[in-house]
Write a structure and sequence with these properties.
Elements: H1 6-14, H2 21-40, H3 43-59, H4 70-92, H5 119-138, H6 141-152, H7 157-164, H8 168-186
Helix pairs in contact: 2-3, 2-4, 2-6, 3-4, 4-7, 5-8, 6-8, 7-8
Pfam families: Sigma70_r2, Sigma70_r4_2
Keywords: DNA-binding, Sigma factor, Transcription, Transcription regulation
InterPro entries: RNA_pol_sigma-70-like, RNA_pol_sigma-70_dom, RNA_pol_sigma70_r2, RNA_pol_sigma70_r4_t2, RNA_pol_sigma_r2, RNA_pol_sigma_r3/r4-like, WH-like_DNA-bd_sf
Length: about 200
C-alpha cells in the first residue's frame, strides 16, 4: 500500500473509484476476521461475517462522517454484526455459551504466531491457544467483545467505548470481569495463566 489515508481512499471511492475499496479490505481484513473469529468461535461463521461486514461497510460508505476513524466505524459495524449473530444463537439454544470446543477448529490456530522451536513447546502453545479460545467462547457476549477488542485487537478504551456505544467506565468494568472469568477458566492450565 502507498500510505494513502483511509479518509482519502474513502473520498476517492465516493468520487467513483470503487475499486479502491479493495485497499481498505486488504488493510483490515485480517483484523476484522480475527475479531469475528474470537467473538463467534469458528472459522466458517467468522469468514461469512467478515465478508458481510465489508459488504455492509461498502454499501454504507456514504454515511461515514469521519467523526471517528474509519477503523472505529468499521469495527462498530463488525461488532454489531457479531452481537446480532450471538443473539440469534442464544434464541436457538437454551445456553448463550458454546459447549467446550464445539465450535473450535484446531486448524484455526495455525495463523497464530508461535516462536517456539521445540515440538513440545509448539504443541503446548497450540493447546494453550485452544484453551484460551474455548474460555473466550464461554464468556457472555458483552465481556467477549471487550476482551477481543482490547486484549486481542489492541483498541484503546476510548475506541472500544465508541465501537460498542457504552461509557468508558463500563468498558473497563466489563474487561475486568472478563479477565477474571478467563483466569478462572484457565486455572487448570499448569504453570500458565493470564495476568
Amino acid at each position: 500500500m502507498d500510505g494513502t489515508s483511509d479518509e482519502k481512499i474513502i473520498n476517492m471511492i465516493l468520487a467513483g473509484e470503487k475499486e479502491l475499496f479493495a485497499r481498505l479490505v486488504e488493510k483490515y481484513q485480517r483484523k476484522v476476521y480475527n475479531t469475528t473469529y474470537r467473538m463467534l468461535g469458528n472459522s466458517e461463521d467468522a469468514s461469512d461475517l467478515t465478508q458481510e461486514a465489508f459488504i455492509k461497510t461498502f454499501r454504507n460508505l456514504k454515511r461515514f462522517r469521519g467523526k471517528a476513524s474509519f477503523s472505529t466505524w468499521l469495527f462498530t459495524i463488525t461488532t454489531n454484526l457479531c452481537r446480532d449473530e450471538l443473539r440469534k444463537r442464544q434464541r436457538r439454544s437454551a445456553s448463550p455459551h458454546f459447549p467446550d470446543g464445539q465450535h473450535f477448529m484446531s486448524e484455526d490456530i495455525e495463523n497464530i504466531k508461535d516462536n517456539s522451536k521445540v515440538p513440545e513447546d509448539l504443541y503446548m502453545g497450540r493447546e494453550t491457544m485452544a484453551s484460551i479460545q474455548r474460555a473466550i467462547n464461554k464468556l457472555p457476549a458483552d465481556q467477549k467483545e471487550v476482551i477481543v477488542l482490547r486484549d486481542i485487537q489492541g483498541f484503546s478504551y476510548k475506541e472500544i467505548s465508541e465501537i460498542i456505544g457504552v461509557p468508558m467506565g463500563t468498558v473497563k468494568s466489563r474487561l475486568s470481569r472478563a479477565r477474571k472469568s478467563l483466569q478462572k477458566h484457565l486455572k487448570n492450565i499448569e504453570g500458565r495463566g493470564l495476568k
